[in-house]
Design goal:
Four Helix Bundle (Hemerythrin (Met), subunit A); two-stranded antiparallel ribbon; Arc Repressor Mutant, subunit A; globular; 9 helices; 2 strands; 2 domains; 242 residues; mainly alpha; 62% helix; single chain
Length: 242
């Protein structure tokens, strides 16, 4: 693994896990010591994290971790939904063959299997997160648009904006199973719309599907940090008080 990639992954994880406090000034010399890489990879990683929106530059030098309002997170989710709507529209317009749709069908079937039980274990939530990510990745492949893929990658890099951002945080919460069943119902309808070439319906479904993440965030915040573990929860203003 390249040193710059190692530094990026480590720093991102340290921020999301709260290992780096939000009020701490991030300077290259201190981070070099903590991450155990040279200064250049740290510098590259900090630029990347600023581009992702996790940190912002200070006028006096160095960086600070960004803190977000709940509305900031909602806006990031809405932006992802708009982009995924375009992805779904393009996928339907491309009229994929049955063979091309096979991968999407497999992920839908896998999600069905995961949700077939009356309760979900932590392993089930982990499997769901991976299968859900595969579903959204496959949609992008069907859209065959490099521009949309790159735009979605930038959007999903924002904290809490990825399709599976809240899945593991919901493990053990009473509402979680029902929310995931609603999401799976939308997966089925989205598959049908793409298969039928119904581009407008596919776009509307994808946008509505992304908005379900807003409800997921509200559930997580209602239960508070004592009940859930969501990497980056400390980056939302007043999350512990909601």
């Amino acid at each position: 693994m390249q040193q710059s990639t190692k530094a990026l992954l480590r720093l991102r994880q340290m921020i999301l896990d709260g290992e780096l406090p939000v009020d701490e000034r991030l300077s290259e010399p201190k981070l070099v010591e903590r991450v155990a890489v040279s200064r250049t990879p740290i510098r590259v990683a900090l630029v990347r994290l600023e581009h992702e929106g996790l940190i912002e530059a200070l006028p006096s030098g160095g960086y600070k971790i960004r803190v977000f309002d709940k509305q900031d997170v909602f806006d990031a989710i809405e932006l992802r939904g708009t982009l995924e709507g375009l992805v779904a529209r393009r996928a339907a317009e491309n009229r994929p063959t049955r063979a091309a749709l096979a991968g999407l069908a497999r992920t839908v079937a896998e999600l069905d299997d995961i949700l077939s039980g009356s309760t979900l274990s932590e392993d089930d939530f982990s499997r769901y997160m991976n299968a859900n990510a595969a579903f959204h990745d496959t949609l992008q492949e069907l859209a065959a648009s490099a521009v949309l893929r790159e735009s979605l990658a930038r959007s999903a890099a924002m904290p809490f904006a990825s399709p599976s951002a809240f899945v593991m945080a919901q493990a053990g919460l009473p509402e979680s199973h029902e929310i995931l069943k609603i999401a799976q119902y939308q997966h089925h309808r989205l598959f049908e719309a793409i298969e039928a070439g119904e581009s407008s319906r596919a776009e509307d479904l994808a946008r509505e599907h992304a908005r379900l993440a807003k409800r997921n965030l509200e559930i997580v915040l209602e239960h508070g940090p004592d009940r859930v573990h969501l990497p980056g929860l400390q980056l939302i203003k007043n999350a512990g008080a909601l």
